[in-house]
Queue: 2 jobs
Job 1
Amino acid sequence: MILALLCSFLPMNFIVIAAAILCLLHVYALSLEAAAVIGILFAVLFLLYFRYSPKDTLVVVLLPIAFVCKIPCSVTLAVGLLGTPVSAISVACGVIVYYALHFVSTLSKSNGVEISEMATKFKSVVDGIIGNKGMMVAVIAFAATVLVVYLIRRMNINHAWTIAMIIGALLNVLILFVGDLVLTTQVPVMGTILGALLGFVVAMVIKFFVFNLDYARTEKVQFEDDEYYYFVKAVPKVNLSTSDKKVKKVKSSQGTGEKEAGREKVVRKELSARR
Amino acid sequence: MLNEQRVILMSRLAMHEKKEGKENKSIGTYFRSDYISLRLIGAVIAATLSFMLLFGLYILYDSEAFIDGLYRSDITALIWTIVKYFVIFVVGYSLISYIFFAIRYRKARNRLKVYFNNLRRLQILYQRERKEKKQQ
């Protein structure tokens, strides 16, 4: 409770550190060996990647939560829409963290006697995490989804964001199913499809707030000069893609209607060629 | 009277200061080579620590095989193999870090240029206003 209160007003990265420490303490309660493996995993992730992109650390917290809620696709689509291609690494890290913690939690649920035997062996814990084929497939599926969504939403086409979300969700489901067929990762069919659909709905909501109105980039700033105090709320304009421009007919007569339409096509072609 | 152009400029400046201003300013105090080499030192340390952690995990993972290997095989050859992997790991990571920090430095410098340009424009606006007031 106190930790949640602290997280509410301390910087965003504190949530990640607090969550990591809390996870480690819980895993330590299960076994020292598992805690050591998870600790090394967290340390390596922090040292090698999150030192450079502290903004992406939240994905590592959100993705395991989304996995528990059965909607990991939502976070992936959101990252693809709002992030950069590098965010695919953050998503991959999030997937690895979830599967590592999931493995430890299944150990705790499975059998009390077995836990103490298994946990004393590093080998079994490491094998359980690294040898998890489902994790490998999920890492590839979610990282590929982020990249594809990013690439499509940057394309100069109408409804790029919606197309990106649809193709991203489909690709995610497809890779997970192909992975299941090839490596028998036991992916729940209905769960995955429903998760992708729910993810799509969540992504649509994000799109509404970010793309149409762009409230996400609203800035409230305060400054002063010799005469005034300024309290400015700046809402950025929505950037319309060039394809949204339309050529309007200024003059048209009944007899020359077809010619005008032809000219319009030529102008559109020229415009698209210039772009 | 409120000067709209001035408010826009001041808002842009304030937004820059609020969002990425501190980071850009700190990057702007370095020469490119100094900034990148400092960050590379950090990257080498991070890579070394990570390698040590992963190597430690490997030993714990298969300690029996590792100890057997120590007794059976040539120790110098084993050390050379470890050093080879270490160098590959550190050099690879440092190369990625170099590219990353070079791009970050370039972007920060460009943003600072825009920021100082806006500052100059604001100053010109102020000077113009003062002149107009004096004339009145």
Job 2
Amino acid sequence: MPKRTDIQSVLVIGSGPIVIGQAAEFDYSGTQACRVLKSEGLRVILVNSNPATIMTDPEIADATYVEPITPEFVEKIIAKERPDALLPTLGGQTALNTAISMHENGVLEKYGVELIGANVEAINKGEDRDLFKGVVEAVNAKIGHGESARSVICHTMDEVIAGVDTLGGYPVVVRPSFTMGGAGSGFAHDEEELRRIAGQGLTLSPTTEVLLEESILGWKEYELELMRDKNDNVVVVCSIENFDPMGVHTGDSITVAPAMTLTDREYQRLRDIGIAIIREVGVDTGGCNIQFAVNPDDGRIIVIEMNPRVSRSSALASKATGFPIAKIAARLAVGYTLDEIPNDITEKTPASFEPTLDYVVVKVPRFAFEKFPAADATLTTTMKSVGEAMAIGRNFTEALQKALRSLEKKGSQFDFVSAPGDKAELLAKAVVPTDGRINTVMDAIRAGASAEEVFDATKIDPWFVDQLFLIHEIAQELAAAEKLEPEILAEAKRHGFSDAQIGAIRGLREDVVREVRHALGVRPVYKTVDTCAAEFAAKTPYFYSSYDEESEVAPREKPAVIILGSGPNRIGQGIEFDYSCVHASFALSDAGYETVMVNCNPETVSTDYDTSDRLYFEPLTLEDVLEIVHAETLAGPVAGVIVQLGGQTPLGLAQALKDNGVPIVGTSPEAIDLAEERGAFGRVLTEAGLPAPKYGTAFSFEEAKGIAAEIGFPVMVRPSYVLGGRGMEIVYDEPSLGEYLTRHAGLISEHPVLIDRFLDDAIEIDVDALYDGHELYLGGVMEHIEEAGIHSGDSACALPPITLGGFDIKRLRTSTEAIAKGVGVRGLINIQFAMAGDILYVLEANPRASRTVPFTSKATAVPLAKAAARISLGATVAQLRAEGMLPKEGDGGTLPLDAPISVKEAVMPWSRFRDASGRGVDTVLGPEMRSTGEVMGIDTVFGTAYAKSQAGAYGALPTKGRAFVSVANRDKRSMIFPARELVAHGFELLATSGTAEVLKRNGINATVVRKQSEGEGPNGEKTIVQLIHDGQVDLIVNTPYGTGGRLDGYEIRTAAVARAVPCLTTVQALAAAVQGIEALTRGDVGVRSLQEHAEHLTAARQ
Amino acid sequence: MTTSTRGASKVPAVLVLEDGRTFRGRAYGAVGVTFGEAVFNTGMSGYQETLTDPSYHRQVVVMTAPHVGNTGVNDEDPESGRIWVAGYVVRDPARIPSNWRSRRSLDEELVAQGVVGISGIDTRALTRHLRESGAMRVGIFSGNSLPDEGTMLAEVRQAPEMQGADLAAEVATKEAYVVPAIGAKKFTVAAIDLGIKGMTPHRMAERGIEVHVLPATATAEDIYALDPDGVFFSNGPGDPATADHPVSVMRTVLERKTPLFGICFGNQILGRALGFGTYKLKYGHRGINQPVQDRTTGKVEVTAHNHGFAVDAPLDAATDTPYGRVEVSHVCLNDNVVEGLQLLDQPAFSVQYHPEAAAGPHDAAYLFDRFVKLMEGQRA
């Protein structure tokens, strides 16, 4: 039976901004789903507040709403679009929760919208811990297998404390209901921990509910991905085994597909339970993922949880198997059955089968603890990683070592050279799961630990432990070999050793190892991911490398362009770069090239085998890329390699690739260097007559002191060669400078420290532009809402700029063109300017796709990344204007006056992190980027657009209630007008004594509240922190006080995060928020699709 | 490039296909020489069940899953009393087993049972070759002094072919034995052992069936001496075209309208008994992920397969036979191969695949219930 005929239009809800636990994988799933639904002839309506997604590209859906994913806004969209159905299972927990609340508040019924993909009952059964326990019991009654961990549901702290005894004592696991990525869950070993974790969990859970559970720490952990159609056909797409045993969130675990240490009987038992669960829960047209714990001593199976939707694991499983879960889920939702859907890869066989793998897939998480030094880096059941890398090999060792080098993080690869340290200490350290525990384990092995000792310390399955011993033995053999003979070299490569690792062990340079290897003819072959272990011929060139015999890369005629992706998501390099790579692939494919994508991030659209003509799922290291270029050169002509779209990762390879004779298209590696290197770039600026803030480079404290004195405090200090503002700080005086240098002593020894003048009170401006060597296309000018000094990735910005005039834009254009020309850009360039007084300073220039390209593209309805890719391969701006890719006339600097205003807001991961004693980490913005994602608010006026951006990022701005105001001295002046506005809108102001005094003098009444440091008053007057915790404050304005008084602010801001109260940490944000509140109060906030905005803009341009 | 697997034997081994393609690796299991038909199995779990499945008699099994032996060998999972494969080809054998039920390593087990294998070769390249060129004869030669390739090839080409091979009697029990019903006994079934797997009588016993397993040479008289409620024909190795004796026994069962169930080889025998032909598939179905549609319900089940031959019966309509009409009840969705036959006018059916699983999914276990229903129906 084919698809349903009673559905003509479908609303798809995306997952919103990238946050920890909900990342790019939902763009991948959502994009697949939208495309499938569209190709089925349905009208697809999409809502997603995240502009950096492919799914929000105007051609993916028929009506794309970049609007906040809240029930209020989604209702507006439904009222306007009147879709027949709502598909909520592809946008993570956000979409699911939104759909459920719209069901509960009657909106779906009111507009006659049918939920497809999963019904409410199934969602509740899967998500609600108590109901799910019932599901597992019912399954056990039917098939005799599967049980839940002993547990108790609690709604109050008293119930929590009492619950521990019924479970047989500590440790216990706390799991809040209805939170994503396991937010708020953890292990409690005593009552104090329990009170903290459960207290937070009760707050986080929308139903004020937590589950306490017996501890199954150290058990083996597995996941199954299942799909079921309306005819009750069920398939298990993939089994995943966690390298890290129970106790670490699966998103933070190293995971392996397929399961490695199960007999068929045990595996089939998991499969039987999984199938019985999906039936019992009632997911009838879609997928789900189920997690199991298996006792390694007797095989007892505990069902941990299920997600009745497409999840992070399903994205991983799709990439691991070649079975596109989201695509198939979308087809099932509109009525197809599995046997009616063809397997894309074989084209001849149906999707109603279970993929079988003849390779091993390893996923490793990427963390960002270095960004949150105060945060506790212990891995728990709350997910903390910000990204992941996946690798495929023909055996576990190959896949593991490829995955570790894909992380592209210092120290992520096994080190066989430096002294391992003390065995006992290493084993003790390995007991606690942390980022890099696998390296600690390897060091312990190097220090002489036995397999039993490693197992006892970590409970990592002995088979995996033995694989680490295998790697270690090869390293020893490599070290001991008299000569680098072909046998040992081939053996090492077969187990995933990189040329760099071999070089380190042998005391050789990496390139020397490579030369030897090539001379000996030891090169990788490329195998195909084909879902069927070669039983049927694969039509889809989805490749991975292996040191094996036979390569499957087919010859081709068309010239190939190899696009290097951006690797694992991390703070500072995320989905935005994947967006640009995907666009390049689409544009170049249209222009007649064969596109070849290289990437190792399973969450992305770029690693969908449908995106490019060929996909190499490979690490982005020089060695791996050179081998791919070699293989593709043998296959046919290679027009060049694109490095400027995937962020710093491919950019860092540019020069070395060129040195190895690889043609780099677009901006040359020399030009890239020119912009990165301070001195050379300074000369470009001087030649163009452009001022930059004063700066200096110091190698010692003495030098730094001198330079700072000359420039004048405050200064911005940072280590050279850093990403995302890592280690960057604003320093207000000499002692702080000394303290900074002490803290970063390690950095100075390797690289000098850069000291810049800090432009206090300057407006920061971001420009994205295209340059073809002759003509500049100004893509867009973004005005930051926060002042200079906040990392551009963390600050909100508006496009078109809201306070800059035509003269300013003209100056920006001239400067941008001069720099683009001076540097030698062929493609995209991003420049950051600061306007201080009347002087326009150049802060930095990056001759590559920036983080803001997707935002700029969406705000101006121009595909900048596509244009950049074309320019890289020789097209001119004039040509692209003629083709219609760029507007015939004008550009992002000449937007018509009634163009919509777009506001980008960054989303911070504060609530994810706790310090070792369980307190929140501080939420102040600074020059070091910490945001994980972004949202866009788009509307006709700034206030509304800003309000939407806030609603999308953090929840709606309040329109009434109590606002607490406490600002640093330097901000007190600029606070007065917005504070007055708040009062005018009916807010009651609370303030600490100092701020209240200033307000009073300006005729604004504010209630004085006690500081945290003052403690509770004699008559029980509560402190501001207590008031926030009691839910008595609706809006918080708290700007940091430089170095002094920090603690109070810290308490306030972390309380705000814990209670999810909007918290503004700059006065600029306050001013913008006031405009937003005004717009909300007027009540004229509507919704408009990107397609409508674009139509309007195009009309206005003519 | 010669690859090797550390921890495994350092003794060299060569795999030679009858078309001359060779793969060089390391010895795995016993050292020596073996010949058979090269076939690949795509299951990712269940090597112990695969090795002990009598249907693999005289076949050299290539495992597409790279890691084999991870869970060692236990005493519960074998499907028969011994390993039947003629040779074993894996890429990365486990160096240590890890499972709470494991008693010894797979390597030890292969050595103990004298099974010659090879490891460290590009099993995917070999599989692709077999897919494109079809299943063919193969030899594995391991040891420190190996003959030259020409000699090895000549030896491979002298090995017997699978087509025309009558093997069931070689693997079947010589003596009848009884698998008692679990719980109350409801039925008696005579099961003709053509290479039966241990799980099959177990699945019947679970349903209250007392299973009398009879040798492949059993006659109709032997069967009816038991006064069975039903008769079962098992899986087994070899070319169904040679199975004249079981075919004639089955015809007697059909004539007497005793409820009949056949699996795998049993399905081919039913096909032949009904007058259909059987043919050799290019490279067969061997794995545990095959989509089969039950045409009576439209439902798809994921099933375990191990067959190199298939029944040639029309898919589109019922066929008249001396025993009434028969239709194709099950079909493999990958390639439309006949996977099941059902008589419409009397209680007999068979499937080409393995509802007893082991290894494999349990989706098709309902077929044993169907058999029970047939027997119940006959009684009523």
